[in-house]
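Translate sequence into structure tokens.
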Amino acid sequence: MTFESIKEKLIKKGKLYEDPDFPAVSKSIYRTKDVASDVVWKRPKEIQNNPVFVRDQASRFDFDQGELGDCWFVAAAASLAVQDQHLLKNIIRPDGQTFEDYAGIFRFCFWRFGKWTDVIIDDRLPYSTESNEILFSRNREEPNEFWVALMEKAYAKLHGSYEDMEGGKIQDALVDFTGGISECIDLEDKSKVPKNLFETLEKTFNMNSMMGCSISKSDDDNGGQWETELDNGLYAGHAYSITGIATVKTGDAKRHKLLRLRNPWGYCEWNGLWGDKPQASPIWNMVDVKTKEKLGFQSEDNGEFWIGYDDWIANYTECQLCHLSPNALTAAVAEETGKSIWQINEHHGSWVSGLSAGGCGNAPDEDMLYDNPQYRVELEDVNTDDECDDCTLIISLMEEFKRHVDLAIGYYVFKVRRRALEKSPDERYTKGDLKYVSTGSYSFYREVTMRLKLKPWKYVIFPTSFSKNEEGNFLLRIFTEKKLDSKIIDKPVKVVPCFHSKERSIAKRPSRDWENSVAKLYDQFAGEDKEIDAYELQKLLNYVFFRGEVVVTGGVYRLTTDIPMCPPGVKEDEEANFDRESARSLLAMVDENKSGRICKKEFSKLTAELKVWKDGFHKYDRDKSGTIDVGELQEIFSRMGLSLSKKCLAPIVRRYAGKNQTLNFRDFILASTKVMIMYNNFARHSGGFTEETTFKMSLEDWLVETMYC
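Result follows.
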């Protein structure tokens, strides 16, 4: 049901919404610790006589952090409130939610991993009966305004609990609020701070980029608490939003570079030069009244203060930014002379252990770097001049949100050597095909961003995790100011010609004696009805492929198999043989009328197919261990007649392979059967194996097809 339909139904019944997915229980507040005994859940109308969602319009002064360590969220929300109000309208949907047409239900929308996601909540909020106030974020100056508290609850639901918002990065929240691009500027090493950083930040701020900053702290500072108070009024381990940047002229004609910061607590400020208390910083007496009014200078402890640029550099260790347009990226914004029309490509991908998680290429696993996903980017010059201009390439790599998992991510950029320019679109590059261009710094941040200036040419981007076999999903965003063509390099999903041939490229044709023996065995097992079910099929297949002979009435049928199905050293009653589930799946693969039984013709078709799979398995079980590596699956399936992309192989690997990234024979049979059934189902509904790649199916038909496989 939609937000509107739920609300309309509640109003008609005179009921208030209770969120079943984020209930008013202690686990929604803290997952790993107890909630104080004085904490209850209250709705805004139970807290204030006249609650409002937003009074006049949202402001950066609406925030008081409360008792949760989510200063990064509050600082980001305050930065958002500084910008145009239309940004908030993207989050608060629909615009104009109030407590007048009331059903206790509200909706917000956040950008998550490439798409806008609706979050519907009820308005019950954690409330302290001891302090008589909302436990977490609230508006201290206007306590009957609730948009801050409700937005925080929606964001907590997105994370799983309020506790899951303890500690985070400003830039991550800003990206979730806007869908923009995050960037971090390291201020730890003061000698490496760009000389023109202030001018760059000023121009970037004027282009509506949102900013925050923080002071790092060691883990053992302050007994492990999030924040540590410093002598100058600032806090280490704490996030601040940057709400203004200006150059101020004093009466002595000197010009001073200033930044305006806001503490999300709504109090505790910088007490040094340019602090907003006259007794602490008399330099404001040298600034004229009009300038102070223009800067919004207020001499009060409201959490917002001005600080000189040099003092800001000296005290802060990181600056976080979120750009609403790639034009504002700080690495080169000072050099920009005009607006560009940006070309944007997005790619969702994954790192799968043993398949596409090759790591960063450090020794001794240098060659595994090329197992990572590869994206070909072709930069073209849009000018007609003989001399080509450089193209700006912006790369943003974002890991899909996973709480409490440390995964350092980064990427490589390579230039395609001339001799490899004509490679086919599905042919992956190897070391000799590429020339190194640049590496994005590996970081535990959710998103890493880099800007490059490159000549028009073909390039390849490898998004990677730092260590091999680290799994995760990612979003790769590529921005260029000129024509852009970017594609993943992978095999297309299709049926290859040998799929239709009687003899596959890895199959040995069964002998006539073998086929006759199998046919006689079928008659013996089938009985009077001439059909067999999954139970009978299991016993029959194990006789055919594992025993080599079987005693029946009238004599002994001896079966000829070119390669024993059961690998040496593996007992027939272990994982190498056919179990009941294998038999069910194999029967479904050839059971054309879905009767649950198959005839001799269908059984002959099945054994011929299994002969192909048997040969394929043993060919790639090079060490005769009874297993194959998942990295070889793509080639095995191709030689069996099925072309599968790594995207299709990923769920197969995750479902059937173990931690050692191998498949035993039984799992290989189950995986192959599943793939074949889905291929055949597609062919039946789409009219055959053609270039057509889509068809429509009802939910009922879909369930029928997928349940019987």
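Note: The chain has 17 helices and 28 strands.
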